[in-house]
Amino acid sequence: xxxxxxxxxxxxxxxxxxxxxxxxxxxxxxxxxxxxxxxxxxxxxxxxxxxxxxxxxxxxxxxxxxxxxxxxxxxxxxxxxxxxxxxxxxxxxx
Length: 94
Fold this sequence. Notes:
Helix content: 55-70%
Number of helices: 6
CATH topology: 434 Repressor (Amino-terminal Domain)
CATH class: Mainly Alpha
CATH superfamily: lambda repressor-like DNA-binding domains
Largest sheet: none
Oligomer: single chain
Number of domains: 1
CATH architecture: Orthogonal Bundle
Distance between the termini: 36 Å
Order of helices and strands: HHHHHH
Structural class: mainly alpha
């Protein structure tokens, strides 16, 4: 008997959605880690990127869609390569 968490019950796109959510959470955690290494508040990172503080908070908490442009702006403000934030994500080619 299959349970609700089995892929066949959730549908064919469920696994891809799960990988995407995990990727968003990893990117957000990496952004927060790099921001904290610089001892910056989310407000300071927002100021340096030109993004709003709520956008930074949503990115770090993976509660919204992450736009590539936002990730690039954050990486630039932090002085790191975007690859620091996106390498080794689920489904990312090695």
